[in-house]
Write a structure and sequence with these properties.
This protein is of the alpha+beta class and 744 residues long. It contains 29 helices and 26 strands.
């Protein structure tokens, strides 16, 4: 996938033109242009040279996006906003003077004697001021007529035609005024004076510039999340070189370098703690505000904050390979992509401007045929040109995607594309993998039951020392529990493992046995009451391990993969949202049903192998759009097969790569929040598209004068320009409402 920055685009018609040009290049499989970020994304085998040539032939500037994740660096955007603001202020000052000269006499305001007495002088001054405003805003005319020459008329073309037509007509009227004055026809001079539209020509430009300024500022707010992520990245790091601390640029840190981090400082690159202990605030990556304790051997990530202790770490990932850089790239890629729902708007945008120009011409002709004066008919045509707004169509989808994507990033939910956000808004069924997704994926000791006359300490002591030489996952659970209890180690001899049954070894010279019921019962008698308790634990999905020594039963330890803290809450929220929940697992039915009952899962599919999960997903898709949430390599086929693949961020790289959404926290509570963001973003897109379409559907006929014969509704070109300037602003501001999601 290649990405480029495109310059010179002003509306959706421009982006449609660029896409059309690039799609004709041999080797291009697909491409999308994002009007909000001015980025072009191309997939296929086409060369950069051919793509750049095609875009330039279409009349736009283009450069390869070498900055990668930094493509949204806002220096250029800020510069453009300042430029537009200066243009606006200068234009408004001149327009205020122009309006005073043109209409001051109607309001009985004091006038300059020469202009009050001589209408021609008044008209010439109006022309000069109007021309100054047009020169200040020459960008509309340059881009607009360049678009016509390149057969790619755009919004600037409409503005240039509207303002230019007003100016040219006013110059013609001014010439007629001069001719009438020479003939001494004062009445004709005054009549022609009312036909001057110099103030409209200037006001149209000022109002559209005002809209551009509002749009530019509000668009800047949509990139707040991405800016925040970029600002988190540290600029310098302290590395150990020749036994001394040396401060270097973070870009100079290499994999394997040892760096230090003091309390309150940001961790510069991804690494592993070599020495020291501390609490690290990882909210910048996960959205979780509670600090995580770090010890030697633990991983740390760039842009997280070391809060308490001194850490010495070894760099494991630098530059674009760090977690924060990958997150920035993922968020940026999603912002630059295009959602399928935008296709309808793109088709309309492609023919929008030529259609509006045609409607404006037809409007003028019809009013002339109806007997209207040229000035009146021209005013109707100009109103059509300046009220129509292709920008609102072009911005309807990308601004909502950008804001929704930013909200997700703040909460540790990373959408890889705009399509993923749209899909998240349509999901009806969500299938969860059990181990590592709903459960912790790490067996833990849940129950310790001792035989009569045996203390818990004695049972744990023997179990701990027996299991310490075993590689079985259940043994690790007992070892972890023993370490927490401070169990001392003993001399263990003659260790032996009986496959599928249990273990035996000599501890302190005594034979100790551990394993399942059939294995232990061959060495000693197990009380029926204890066996009954063991059966009860088994029904709860727990694995019971029996222990004995010297022919005497010592007791039982139950081990289970415990449910994650947020699983039940997540499932409850999904049920309230009307989303069906399914759990897929390779475990036996009894264990699966118990876990499902704990968290409130609607349906359970147990004893299913990895390829079987994919088949289950395909079957579920017959009921509606399905999302698959998983974390392991065995989940990759199912993640790919689902309508939307969701990977728990703590999972394997394969699962993360196969998914379209990544939950950085590794907490299931992110799943319902992901769907909430998807649904509200999709709703926002529909609202924006509705506004963009309905605005033009109502506004263009109103400007053309369709309602004049019926209701007497007549639209002045200046009001049309004001409406156009606010339409895109309204679309962007509506998208910004999505930020409210992050506050809940």
């Amino acid at each position: 996938m290649a990405q480029f920055n495109v310059t010179g685009m002003s509306c959706a018609a421009c982006s449609a033109r660029v896409e059309k040009a690039v799609n004709t290049v041999e080797g291009v499989e697909s491409c999308s242009v994002n009007l909000l970020t001015n980025t072009l994304t191309v997939e296929g085998t086409a060369t950069e040279k051919d793509i750049i040539t095609a875009v330039k032939k279409a009349g736009y500037g283009i450069k390869t996006d070498k900055a990668g994740a930094d493509r949204n660096d806002t220096n250029e955007e800020d510069k453009e906003t300042k430029t537009v603001t200066v243009r606006l202020i200068t234009s408004l000052i001149l327009v205020a003077v122009l309006m005073y000269i043109a209409m001051g006499h109607m309001l009985s305001l004091p006038q300059i004697p020469l202009m009050e007495e001589n209408s021609v002088v008044n008209g010439v001054v109006q022309m000069i001021i109007s021309l100054c405003v047009m020169i200040i805003n020459k960008k509309f005319f340059i881009n607009g007529f360049k678009g016509v020459l390149n057969k790619a008329a755009n919004m600037d073309t409409l503005v240039a035609l509207g303002s230019g037509a007003s100016f040219v007509w006013s110059v013609v009227v001014l010439v007629m005024m001069i001719k009438a004055q020479r003939l001494g026809d004062a009445e004709a001079v005054m009549m022609h004076r009312h036909g001057l539209y110099f103030e409209s020509a200037a006001m149209i430009l000022a109002l559209i510039t005002f809209g551009k300024m509002l749009e530019s500022r509000s668009k800047g707010k949509t990139t707040t999340a991405l800016r925040s992520l970029m600002e988190l990245r540290p600029k310098t790091a302290r590395i150990i070189k020749d036994g001394k601390e040396v401060t270097v640029n973070v870009s100079d840190v290499k994999k394997g370098d040892v760096f230090t981090v003091r309390p309150g400082e940001s961790i510069p690159v991804d690494g592993v703690v070599v020495s020291g202990e501390s609490a690290v605030n990882e909210s910048s990556l996960t959205g979780e505000s509670i600090p995580v304790d770090k010890y030697p051997g633990d991983r740390v990530s760039a842009a997280t904050i070391n809060q308490s202790g001194f850490l010495e770490c070894r760099a494991t990932a630098v530059g674009e390979d760090t977690t924060i850089s990958q997150i920035i790239r993922m968020v940026s890629d999603a912002a630059a992509s295009k959602a399928p729902v935008a296709k309808a708007a793109d088709k309309v945008a492609g023919i929008f401007v030529p259609s509006v120009i045609a409607i404006a011409v037809i409007t003028v002709i019809i009013w002339l045929l109806c007997g209207s004066e040229v000035g009146y008919a021209l005013a109707r045509g100009i109103s059509v040109l300046v009220i129509s707004c292709p920008c609102a169509l072009g911005l309807a989808t990308p601004v909502a995607i950008m804001v929704g994507n930013g909200v997700g990033a703040k909460k540790g939910i990373l959408f890889k594309s705009a399509e993923a956000i749209e899909k998240a808004g349509k999901i009806k069924i969500v299938a969860f993998d059990k181990t590592g997704t709903i459960t912790e994926g790490k067996p833990q000791v849940t129950d310790v039951l001792t035989a009569e006359g045996i203390s818990e300490e004695e049972l744990i002591y023997n179990a701990f020392n027996l299991e310490k030489k075993s590689e079985h996952p259940l043994a690790k659970a007992i070892l972890s529990y023993g370490e927490q209890q401070g169990t001392r180690e003993a001399v263990t001899e003659g260790f032996s493992a009986v496959s599928g049954k249990g273990l035996t070894a000599k501890i302190d010279g005594k034979e100790v046995y551990g394993g399942n019921y059939s294995y232990i019962s061959s060495y000693c008698d197990v009380d029926s009451n204890m066996k009954s308790k063991a059966d009860g634990l088994s029904k709860q999905g727990k694995t019971v391990l029996y222990f004995a020594s010297q022919g005497r039963f010592f007791g039982m330890i139950a081990v289970s993969d415990v449910v994650k803290e947020g699983s039940k809450i997540a499932v409850e929220k999904l049920n309230k949202m009307g989303i069906k929940t399914v759990m897929l697992t390779g475990d036996n039915e009894q264990t699966a049903e118990f876990i499902a009952k704990q968290v409130g899962i609607d349906e359970v599919v147990s004893g299913v192998l990895p390829d079987g999960k994919e088949k289950v997903i395909r079957k579920l898709r017959e009921e509606g759009p399905v999302a698959m949430v998983g974390d392991g390599i065995n989940d990759a086929p199912a993640l790919t097969s689902a309508d939307l693949g969701v990977a728990i961020g703590a999972g394997t790289d394969v699962a993360v790569d196969a998914a379209e959404v990544v939950l950085v926290k590794g907490n299931p509570e992110g799943v319902p929040k992901m769907f909430e963001i998807g649904r509200k973003t999709l709703k926002n897109i529909y609202e924006n598209l509705f506004w963009a379409f309905i605005y033009n559907i109502i506004g263009i006929p109103l400007a053309a004068g369709v309602f004049i014969p019926v209701f007497g509704w007549e639209l002045n070109p200046m009001f049309g320009a004001a409406a156009m300037s606010l339409s895109s602003f309204c679309v962007v501001m509506n998208a910004l409402r999505l930020n409210r999601i992050s506050k809940r």
